[in-house]
Hints:
The complex is a heterodimer of chains A (125) and B (106).
Chain A: E1 3-7, E2 11-12, E3 18-25, E4 34-41, E5 48-54, E6 59-61, E7 69-74, E8 79-84, E9 93-102, E10 110-115, E11 119-123
Parallel strand pairs in A: 2-11
Antiparallel strand pairs in A: 1-3, 3-8, 4-5, 4-9, 5-6, 7-8, 9-10, 9-11
Chain B: E1 9-12, E2 18-23, E3 33-37, E4 44-47, E5 61-66, E6 69-74, E7 83-91, E8 94-97, E9 101-105
Parallel strand pairs in B: 1-9
Antiparallel strand pairs in B: 2-6, 3-4, 3-7, 5-6, 7-8, 7-9
Amino acid sequence: QITLKESGPTLVKPTQTLTLTCTFSGFSLSTSGVGVGWIRQPPGKALEWLALIYWDDDKRYSPSLKSRLTITKDTSKNQVVLTMTNMDPVDTATYYCAHRRAYCGGDCPGDFDYWGQGTLVTVSS
Amino acid sequence: SYVLTQPPSVSVAPGKTARITCGGNNIGSKSVHWYQQKPGQAPVLVIYYDSDRPSGIPERFSGSNSGNTATLTISRVEAGDEADYYCQVWDSSSDLFGGGTKLTVL
């Protein structure tokens, strides 16, 4: 059974760096085709894809946020970490991590078939 | 950049058929996935690869994709289907979500 859980601060101040950890079980991030993505959702708004890391450590970022994001993985700990710099109140959102399965063995289309419960991050001074 | 367009809202009476669209330039050439999100919950995958259903998703949920429009169809709508629905595609090595559609069951 695949499970994912996000952890990190619930409150950050403007200009600070946010670090979120996704701890997962039920799959290995060293299996070909597997990825873990981060998606966020501001209150009352739509889902927004942020970043993705593949089993082979290939990484993809949202073009609009690329300069602020870093995604890494620790396969031995079954964790994926997302950092976002220079936080702003508009970054207030629920942040989700999700298991992504790809339809090929590389950078290609895929879906998010398992999601964490999400963690609400508020940016305020 | 690629844009996915969904109607903000769709309303349907119980027992009827709801159709939620996702528009994009030549979206028929892409794989489209659909998610259901109920208030306070994480999204759930209901359709993947245009028209496949994950295990546990009722057969009432189906999908199609052609030309510039992908469609999620929910037959015999129930009160429990009331939720936000999002389409998702992969384009230029990025995942992308539509703006979401709120399905209201009258």
